[in-house]
């Protein structure tokens, strides 16, 4: 009898407290809703890009990159992934939770990099 492959969701929560560059220009904090503009710009790029790169660190500290197809970002930029619970990426995140996500919207010449 075959055992079903485990399934786990990886969630990455983002806190944006650094300047964000998208569409070739930096969004400056001119008003009280500048943070919200940052989040909206990031969500637009993340949604348009669709796929992203998930970067983890292996046991020797070497970055490991893989393409992921995440669920759409939540309003606070929380990102969810579905993956096999026995995958190397899950083991790597358990051992060292420092990860990065890289989204590229080639058509709009914009990108988002998230560290968490």
Automatic annotation (TrEMBL):
Residues 40-116 form the Pyridoxamine 5'-phosphate oxidase N-terminal domain. SUPFAM superfamilies: FMN-binding split barrel (SSF50475). PANTHER family: PROTEIN BLI-3. This is Pyridoxamine 5'-phosphate oxidase N-terminal domain-containing protein. It comes from marine sediment metagenome.
